């Protein structure tokens, strides 16, 4: 992370090159030429405001709506369609002039309408307003209290400048970065910025290294965070874009959205189709002209039809609807998709980078271990529910039969400011999660706070202090006449133990020996090594309240009660989700702002890493250059104490190694990494507005398992996209080859007009393709590795399938076309239309696709083996499309518009017969492929 250099702020002042947090408060004041008593003068404020500008985030200019709309027409397939529409219109005008009558340019108009609709569709997908920076701005406080020229003023936060004295108190949003000069019990919630799940206790004078991560800068406060408790005087060091929040805004605006795997594949598909089409057009036009120059005009018309045929006009709409249907299914599984393209990208994810708190864990502190003089106890139960048991070496312990455990749990309840209550059937806390966990564990022994406070009312207290790292309360104990008061103390185990001279042994109090001290410290280290947050508890009987004595003097001669170790426990369903990731070839990675031991313990518990696996901290990561980090990311699955820049670097390093990365986050600090990742996943419950606006997907339940469910849906969507691309493009190849063959075979006229081709591509292909888009996923889908994000759209046999089926469709249709052409030549004298052969070709191609839609539902199962009602939409789409095609032949207004001709029942049956050959061919292919696979399996079994 780039540290704040003193010389960067005021280069005119001769200073050492040290970050703000590494020097004393007095030095910072001197460097900033401020006064700790009176603050800045009005002249200094004016000069610095002019020099540094207002304390606000500055937005860079993005693409305008017009730019976004115009970019839609840079697609190579749409460019080709526009060219076709222009040439078609020119030919219509030429014909109209020759006949001296108006001819409506149906083909050109229809093509331009399709082009415009595709452009609008693309614009709607891309034109979502960028609101992440606006959400960042909302974190800034509008007003702040400062000292200027010796006077206390409330000013607009935009007017803050380096050197200002800010006065902070509980509930205030901090509007700028600053060095703490004075503090009283100051606690700041920095989770949105650092990822740290607990409020941070701030200190004035503390020695910190240059590379201390944000979460460890205890003498510093940051813009966008919130004061939870206490008060402070803070000297502003950075404002606006120079704050840590400003750095995040800069990083957010510098991140450029990468095209998704689907977008890359669609670009590749367009290039291949257009290039192939132009080559084929050139062959037909040049070859035909060399054969007979009088055919040039006819060949141009053929070329226009070929160009329209090769472009799958309905494909963008089908893909958009498919992705939209995928988003609806995902919402039912608690995943809200904000950007349609993210649905397919999920299916290609190879790595999921997850935050710990609230995603992998419950975001609820749970007591898991208790250590008393007699027992080392394991505590069962989940969340804040006061339901669970106490166990020692597998044996159940009854809490009310153990006097020392009873007194320890009593201390947990009375030395506590939180409230545990049941809301709508769920246990929840009001107050600090750590104190809530203490109430829950006491509740497991039947000790309730409300009851105990009636028996032991609080009469005085020493609040928690970051210097003492302890909290003490004094309660009245009316049943004990000789010592009517008891003081209960909780805090750092080491510092609390230093104050103890006795130890609770069952129902007796005995002197604390050196051996017992060593045992307690060893026990504390063991619990901490498991990633538990450990608190020490002590008590002291009092004859009178220590009104005249200091806290340090009063908190002496304590009786040690025991240790309580707690953890933000893993979500129970996450372990299974991690295992599912592993079987699907997806690597889960934990990236957190929490401490290394905590992160490692949770990761091992969930199966993300094994004991002994490497954990990389933010400080270690800082020392790695990008090339070294790119090598490290292949082996490291846990990152602890990381900063916003680190998260961004990790995501980029993974992407450089070819991974498709899903990144979860809930805080402001996560926004740049969310935007950089292929799939940014924000938390719906605990997530900030900034993280949600920067994300592609929002988890409505903040659960890691939901991401895995979304990945499964993404794989289903991608499989179905490949299925209907095979379906649509196989048809288009058949159309192109059929059209190209007509002039080469000497048939008069073009077999298909551009308008008829548009009908096939949009309706005959489009409706069944939409039905194929909701084909249910196969059970084995999440037992396969993710598909290579760099793979071609034609990979894994899709390209050869399209060409093969396209050629077969063309052969069948050309055979029908030659027969129909000869047949209509013979019967035209009977008053029948000579051009009916073109309608027969049109009808055969359309009906052939219906059989194709049935057969392509499965790549290896015969249709007799597939339940036809597992996807009833295919049945409906085939029925509706077939009916519409029949209407084009037998309803006169439609016949006139689409230039079709009436077919006799015999001619229609012949079309149906030829078209059914495609279904038969695909089913025979499956038989051959399955038979060959069975032979290979049998041969392999025989060799074993």
UniProtKB/TrEMBL annotation:
Question: Which keywords are on file for this protein?
Answer: ATP-binding, Cell membrane, Membrane, Nucleotide-binding, Translocase, Transmembrane, Transmembrane helix
GO MF annotations in UniProt: ATP binding; ATP hydrolysis activity; P-type sodium:potassium-exchanging transporter activity
Signal peptide location in the record? none
- Biological process per Gene Ontology, one example term: intracellular sodium ion homeostasis
Q: Which stretches make up the Cation-transporting P-type ATPase N-terminal domain?
A: 19-93
The answer to whether the entry has keyword Translocase is yes
Matching SUPFAM superfamilies, A to Z? Calcium ATPase, transduction domain A, Calcium ATPase, transmembrane domain M, HAD-like, Metal cation-transporting ATPase, ATP-binding domain N
One GO term describing the cellular component: plasma membrane
The protein's topology relative to the membrane is: Multi-pass membrane protein
InterPro entries to which the protein is assigned, alphabetical:
ATPase_P-typ_cation-transptr_C, ATPase_P-typ_cation-transptr_N, ATPase_P-typ_cyto_dom_N, ATPase_P-typ_P_site, ATPase_P-typ_TM_dom_sf, ATPase_P-typ_transduc_dom_A_sf, ATPase_P-type_domA, Cation_transp_ATPase_P-type
Q: Which Pfam families match?
A: Cation_ATPase, Cation_ATPase_C, Cation_ATPase_N, E1-E2_ATPase
| Compartmental location | Cell membrane
Residues crossing the lipid bilayer are 73-91, 103-124, 272-291, 303-325, 724-745, 757-777, 798-820, 840-857, 869-890, 902-922
Similarity section:
Belongs to the cation transport ATPase (P-type) (TC 3.A.3) family. Type IIA subfamily.
Q: Per its record, how is this protein called by name?
A: Cation-translocating P-type ATPase
């Amino acid at each position: 992370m780039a540290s704040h250099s003193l010389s960067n702020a005021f280069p005119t002042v001769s200073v050492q090159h040290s970050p703000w947090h590494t020097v004393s408060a007095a030095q910072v004041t001197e460097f900033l030429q401020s006064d700790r008593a009176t603050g800045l003068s009005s002249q200094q404020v004016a000069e610095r405001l002019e020099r540094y500008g207002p304390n606000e985030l500055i937005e860079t200019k993005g693409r305008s709506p017009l730019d976004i709309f115009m970019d839609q027409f840079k697609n190579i397939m749409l460019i080709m369609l526009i060219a076709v529409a222009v040439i078609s219109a020119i030919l219509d005008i030429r014909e109209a002039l020759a006949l001296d009558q108006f001819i409506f340019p149906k083909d050109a108009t229809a093509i331009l309408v399709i082009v415009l609709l595709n452009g609008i569709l693309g614009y709607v997908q891309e034109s979502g307003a960028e609101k992440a920076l606006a959400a960042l701005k909302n974190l800034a406080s509008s007003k702040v209290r400062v000292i200027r020229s010796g006077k206390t003023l409330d000013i607009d936060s935009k007017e803050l400048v380096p050197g200002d004295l800010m006065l902070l108190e509980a509930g205030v949003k901090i509007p700028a970065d600053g060095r703490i000069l004075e503090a009283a019990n100051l606690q700041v919630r920095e989770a949105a910025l650092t990822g740290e799940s607990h409020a941070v206790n701030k200190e004035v004078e503390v020695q910190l290294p240059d590379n201390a991560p944000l979460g460890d800068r205890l003498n510093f406060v940051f813009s966008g965070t919130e004061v939870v408790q206490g008060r402070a005087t803070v000297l502003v060091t950075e404002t606006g874009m120079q704050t840590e929040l400003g750095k995040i805004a800069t990083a957010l605006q510098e991140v450029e959205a990468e095209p998704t795997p689907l977008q890359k594949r669609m670009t590749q598909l367009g290039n291949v189709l257009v290039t192939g089409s132009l080559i084929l057009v050139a062959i037909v036009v040049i070859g035909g002209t060399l054969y007979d120059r009088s055919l040039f005009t006819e060949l141009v018309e053929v070329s226009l039809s070929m160009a329209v045929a090769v472009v799958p006009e309905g494909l963008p709409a089908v893909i958009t609807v498919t992705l939209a249907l995928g988003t609806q299914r995902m919402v039912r599984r608690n995943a809200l998709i904000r950007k349609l393209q993210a649905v397919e990208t999920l299916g290609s994810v190879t790595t999921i980078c997850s935050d710990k708190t609230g995603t992998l864990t419950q975001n609820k502190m749970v007591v898991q271990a208790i250590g008393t003089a007699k027992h080392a106890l394991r505590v069962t139960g989940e969340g804040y529910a006061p339901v669970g048991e106490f166990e020692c070496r597998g044996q159940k312990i009854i809490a009310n039969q153990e006097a020392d455990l009873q007194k320890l749990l009593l201390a947990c309840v009375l030395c506590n400011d939180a409230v545990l209550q049941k809301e709508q059937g769920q246990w929840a806390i009001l107050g600090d999660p750590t104190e809530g966990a203490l109430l829950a564990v006491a509740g497991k022994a039947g000790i309730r706070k409300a009851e105990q406070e009636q028996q032991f009312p609080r009469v005085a207290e020493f609040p928690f202090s970051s210097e003492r790292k302890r909290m003490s309360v004094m309660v009245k104990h009316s049943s004990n006449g000789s010592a009517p008061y008891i003081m209960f103390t909780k805090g750092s185990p080491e510092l609390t133990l230093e104050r103890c001279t006795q130890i609770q042994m069952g129902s007796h109090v005995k002197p604390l020996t050196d051996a017992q001290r060593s045992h307690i410290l060893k026990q504390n280290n063991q619990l901490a090594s498991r990633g538990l947050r450990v608190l020490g508890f002590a008590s002291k009987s009092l004859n009178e309240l220590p009104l005249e004595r200091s806290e340090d003097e009063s908190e002496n001669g304590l009786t040690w009660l025991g240790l309580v170790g707690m953890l933000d426990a893993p979500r129970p369903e996450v372990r299974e989700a991690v295992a599912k990731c592993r079987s699907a070839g997806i690597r889960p990675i934990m990236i957190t702002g929490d401490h290394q031991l905590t992160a490692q313990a949770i990761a091992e518990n969930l199966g993300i890493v094994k004991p002994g696996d490497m954990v990389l901290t933010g400080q270690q990561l800082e020392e790695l250059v990008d090339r070294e980090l790119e090598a490290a990311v292949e082996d490291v699955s846990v990152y602890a104490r990381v900063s916003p820049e680190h998260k961004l670097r990790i995501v980029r390093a993974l992407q450089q190694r070819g991974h498709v990365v899903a990144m979860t986050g809930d805080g402001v600090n996560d926004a740049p990494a969310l935007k950089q990742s292929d799939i940014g996943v924000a938390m719906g419950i605990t997530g900030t507005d900034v993280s949600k606006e920067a994300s592609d997907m929002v988890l409505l339940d903040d659960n890691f398992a939901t991401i895995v469910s979304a990945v499964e849906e993404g794989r289903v969507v991608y499989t179905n996209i490949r299925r209907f691309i095979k379906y649509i493009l196989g048809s288009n190849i058949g159309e192109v080859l059929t059209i190209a063959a007509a002039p080469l075979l000497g048939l008069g006229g073009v077999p298909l007009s551009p308008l008829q081709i548009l009908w096939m591509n949009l309706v005959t292909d489009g409706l069944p393709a939409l039905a194929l888009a909701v084909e249910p996923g196969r059970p084995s889908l999440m037992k396969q590795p993710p598909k290579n994000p760099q793979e071609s759209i034609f990979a894994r046999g899709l390209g050869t399938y399209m060409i093969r089926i396209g050629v077969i469709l063309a052969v069948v249709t050309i055979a029908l076309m030659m027969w129909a052409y000869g047949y209509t030549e013979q019967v035209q004298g009977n008053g029948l239309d000579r051009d009916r052969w073109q309608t027969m070709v049109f009808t055969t191609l359309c009906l052939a696709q219906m059989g194709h839609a049935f057969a392509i539902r499965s790549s290896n199962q015969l249709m007799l083996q597939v339940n036809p009602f597992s996807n009833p939409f295919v049945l409906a789409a085939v029925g509706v499309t077939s009916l519409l095609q029949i209407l084009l032949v037998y309803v006169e207004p439609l016949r006139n518009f689409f230039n079709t001709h009436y077919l006799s029942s015999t001619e229609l049956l012949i079309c149906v017969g030829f078209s059914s050959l495609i279904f038969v061919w695909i089913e025979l292919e499956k038989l051959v492929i399955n038979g060959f696979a069975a032979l290979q399996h049998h041969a392999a079994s025989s060799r074993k």
